[in-house]
ORF6N domain-containing protein
Amino acid sequence: MAEKKDISLQTSTISDDLLVNKIYLIRGQKVMIDNDLAELYGVETKQLKRQVRRNMERFPEDFMFELSDGEYHVLRSQIGTLKQGGHSKYPPMAFTEQGVAMLSSVLNSTQAIAVNIQIMRIFTKIRQILMDNTDIRLEIEKIKRSLDNHDKNIGLVFQYLDELNDKIARPPLLPDRERVGFKIGE
């Protein structure tokens, strides 16, 4: 029971905003970078990479991939704080949500487990927000289609009214008669 208290205390020291800011969109996937994860887990980046390389069978391509030089350059320009030469000579590893979950089985420290739980909760929140937005977009599209149908139906009603108006028999015009009333100016 005491171990659970320790884990929850450690998780509360890292803000959700900090974690969200360490999630990047690369190759169309939400990922976290190895040096950010190492910092959060309280280990050196080279130790994290070493553990991953020892357990590569746990990290298929959809769990973890290495960034290309171009991706690394774009990431460095986005972050702005990465200094040339200040990091590993190897390209950074990017971990998807499943890869981050798998890291907890490779890095078995109390801090790694606590941080991992919090990261999983953040990924879940992000996924829920995206699903909520998708549901809203679908509802808006449904309303737009319904309004388009209403516009077409109203146009059709007016067309039928015009056709009906043309077909209605009109009374014959009355013959010319003398107007009845006061004449002015005579």
